Amino acid sequence: MKKVNPFQVPGRWYKANLHTHTTLSDGTQPLEERVRQYRAAGYQILAVTDHRLVSKAAALSGPDFLVIDGIETHPGCLPGGDKYHLVVLNAPAGLEFPEESSGAERIRMAREAGAEVIIGHPYWCGHQLPHLMPLQGAAAVEVFNTTCTRRGKGYSSVQWDDLLDSGWWLPAVAVDDTHADWDLFKGWTMFKLESLTPAAFLEALRTGSFYASCGPVIEDFSLSGDRAKVRLRSSPVTEIHLVAQRSCGRSFYAQPGETITEAEMELGPGVRYLRGEVVDREGRRAWTNPFWLV
Fold this sequence. Notes:
Radius of gyration: 18 Å
């Protein structure tokens, strides 16, 4: 499916958490309360992804709030990494995976069932490039996971860049991975949709029509008509990073006590991919999906 620039397609923005647990597995709140919490906090999309159990949460959807049935599954990994944590979205009732099936096989089975898969917190799992490459077919990777901040491993941007540098175009999401109540509302993904429906959500996930955030707002991320220059605009921040493979990117910093809201960079012929990342006064970040330039 063709990738899109969410800042240049029609629709409106919807705030989503894509990784959520309830008392049906190891969360501290029952399903109905978890949905109430996110709805009251201004979210419009919530995926319920309990361990090893497909939720029956979609029935709690309404005209202005979309609940996605999901499951988190844990196939074995290559030597040297913990088990994979694969977050399956739009999982049909009764979806099960054979115990011996690999991560790649589970991604294939999920997609055949009409679902999509996100790679959960690779830094926390100790996953390096050889562990992650077999998971091609996943729709996205978690660049930020609130629960993993409790172990100092909430950010997986290095692992994401390794995958991009390898030649795999892969978007990224930010999630809470909610279990208790301290890990609420700290990482989310903004989706650009023309309608708040499961079909529109899945199309946006598959085409990259979203960006990830812990606070800042990305207002625009675009290439000039001849693809020779990139521009990023955001809410006031102290840092803007235009990240490419290896040493090809550039960073911009506000003067002490000030903020910046935009940055531009001319693109040399060697740039293969480019993504944007911003940091605000509180250290909160937001990430665009990458442009693929080759």
